[in-house]
Amino acid sequence: MISTFELGNNVVGLIINRDIEKGNLEEVHKIILKRISESGKINIFCEIAQDKNVAFKCLMEELSFRHDNSNNIDKLAIVTDLSWLRGVMNINDFMVHTEIRSFEIKDRLEAIQWISD
């Protein structure tokens, strides 16, 4: 299940409460593209719930999507307890225009504050 919320005009929030596998990443991308078409540039808060996994192929698709849309995404906060995913997000930071920060789930309030500034 994917829940969405807004933190202002230009911030879209996503909470993903299922494993990210082939076929269900498109739903996330549709939400993001819709908000880009409505608002132009946006910030994204994305939390992956505890004990959920991300398939490697989906990670590659996500990196490609972020690269293709980085001119329309100012900031991206990834909130997850998957340390390997936080590491990949931080490494990829230099390849896109988007400012990216990753947070542990226990630090979600810090992530919300950062993405809202």
List strands and helices in order, with pairings.
Blueprint: E1 2-6, E2 11-16, H1 25-39, E3 42-48, H2 56-69, E4 73-79, H3 83-92, E5 99-103, H4 108-116
Parallel strand pairs: 2-3, 3-4, 4-5
Antiparallel strand pairs: 1-2
Provide structural commentary.
InterPro entries: SpoIIAA-like, SpoIIAA-like_sf, STAS_dom_sf. It comes from Gillisia hiemivivida. This is STAS/SEC14 domain-containing protein. It is a single chain. The chain is α/β, with parallel strands linked by helices and about 120 residues long. It has one domain (about 1-115): Transcription Regulator spoIIAA (2-Layer Sandwich). It is built from four helices and five strands; from the N terminus they run E-E-H-E-H-E-H-E-H. Strands 1-2-3-4-5 form a five-stranded mixed β-sheet, with helices on both faces.
Anisotropy-based shape: globular
Pairing-aware structural class of the strands and helices? Answer: alpha/beta
Which blocks of ≥5 consecutive residues have pLDDT under 50? none
Q: How many beta-strand segments?
A: 5
Question: Sheet with the most strands?
Answer: 5 strands, mixed
Could you name the CATH class? Alpha Beta
Side-by-side strand order of the widest sheet: 1-2-3-4-5
CATH topology: Transcription Regulator spoIIAA
Helix content: 40-55%
Radius of gyration, taken over Cα atoms and rounded to an integer in Å = 13 Å
Mean pLDDT over the full residue set: 84
- The CATH architecture category equals 2-Layer Sandwich
Tell me the number of structural domains: 1
Organism: Gillisia hiemivivida
Pfam families: SpoIIAA-like
Protein name: STAS/SEC14 domain-containing protein
InterPro entries: SpoIIAA-like, SpoIIAA-like_sf, STAS_dom_sf
